[in-house]
Amino acid sequence: MLSQFAFLDLGAPQLLIILAIVLLLFGSKKLPELARSLGDSAHELRKGLNGTTDEKKDDKNEKHSETAA
User: Fold this and answer.
1) Exposed/middle/buried for 46, CB within 10 Å: 0-12, 13-18, 19+?
2) pLDDT score, position 15
3) Range of the domain at 49
4) pLDDT tens digit string along 13-23?
5) pLDDT of the chain along its 69 residues, tens only?
6) What is the pTM of this model?
7) Rounded Cα–Cα distance for residues 21 and 27 (Å)
8) d(CA 18, CA 31)
9) Quick check: is 1 in a domain?
10) If you placed Cys at 26, which of 13, 30, 43, 56 could pair as Cys (CB 3.0 to 4.6 Å)?
């Protein structure tokens, strides 16, 4: 997996430059809102990916409880 991102060999100076550019583009007031929306999006994505496996588990549990009753 690391070999896929080998071209992104970023050090501290490069990350500081990227952070400075983002700060200039969005401003200091918008950064917390932007970070929060990115976090919410990541959370929803994970929930959606895990939801498909949870639905399968729920279906198995329902079938098992129907046969037991």
Assistant:
1) exposed
2) 86
3) 28-69
4) 888 998 899 88
5) 456 666 677 788 888 998 899 889 988 888 889 889 989 999 999 998 888 666 666 666 665 555 555
6) 0.47
7) 10
8) 13
9) no
10) 30
Hey, what amino acid is at 15?
A: L
Return the DSSP state at 9. -
Looking at the domain assignment, is residue 46 inside a domain?
A: yes
Count of domains observed in the chain: 1
Read off the tokens for 39: 């976090």
**Do 22 and 31 meet the contact criterion of CB atoms below 8 Å apart?**
yes
Give a yes or no: residue 33 inside a domain.
yes
The predicted pLDDT at position 17 comes to 92
Q: In this structure, is residue 12 part of a structural domain?
A: no
Q: Which residues contact 22 (CB under 8 A, 6 or more apart)?
A: 31
